[in-house]
Model the fold of this input.
Amino acid sequence: MRRGNGVEQMELSNMGEDTRGAPGAPDETRAAPFLEVSGLDAGYNRVPVVQGVSVQVALSEVVLVMGPNGAGKSTLVKAITGELPALAGRVILNGRDVTATREEDRTRAGIGYVPQVRDVFGPLTVVENLQMGGYQLGKHEVAARQDEVFSLFPALAGMRSRLARSLSGGERKMLAIGRALMAQPKVMVLDEPTANLAPAIARNVLHGIVAGLAGSGRAVLLVEQRVSLGLEVASWGYVLTDGRLRLQESCKKLRARPDLGTLFLGHGGGELGSAREEVTQGVG
Done:
C-alpha cells in the first residue's frame, strides 16, 4: 500500500435466482449464491417499503444495488443484516435460513455491515474501534484479528491512538470496514461507502478496498450512489425503484444500456452518461 493523503494512493494488491419483480434473466454463468434474498418484503410499522425483492451474491463477487432516493435501498440492507425484521420472504446465508435471527446472530453467522452513517465511534481511538468490532471474540482472538486488519490496511497501524473523529473521510471508511472485518465475515454489506467523499478518494475506496474484499474471497453487496464507479467494480447489478426491482443484469450489459437513465432516474434522457453524471453529483 502506498501512503498518500488519506487513502488517495491506496492499493490493496494483496486482497484479492429468483427474479420476481425484476425483468431480465439470471446469468447462468454466475456462481452459486452464498447470500440469497428471496421475495423479501420489509418496512416500518408493518408497512412494506420494499416488496418482493430477490438478490443473490456469490463469494468473490461484487453485486451493485442502485436506485434513486426513496427506492428502498437502505431498507433492503437493514432487512438483510437483521436491523429490520422481514415481513415476508427469506434471507439465506450459505444454505442456512437466517430470516428470523437477530442482527448479532447474523454477524456471528458471517454477515459484516458498514452503514452509510455512524460507521465509526468518533470519541474512540482506531484501536478501540477495532476492539468494538471484535466484541464477540476472546481477548487473544481480538489481538490476532487486529493484526490482520493492520496488515490489510497498514495506514491504520500508524493511527492506532488517533480518535476516529479526527480521521479524514477516506480514513474513516477504511476504519469502518476494518472494524467490520474483525468478525471475519464472509459477506460484506456496504451502504453507500463513498458518500461525502471526494471523487478521487471515492474511486480508491471502490477500486482499492471494495474490489479487494471480493478479491479476498468475500461476497460483497454494494449500495452505491456513484453508479458509474459502482458499475466499474461490480459484476452484477440490480436496479431498485419504488421498493421493487426493475431490472437485474450483468454490469457489462448495464453499462451498454442506452435507457439506464430512464430506468434508474425515472425520467427521459436515458443516456448512461447522463445517469452517471447525476448520480455522481449525489442523486441516489
Remarks:
- The first helix runs from residue 73 to 81.
- The chain is about 35% helix and 20% strand.
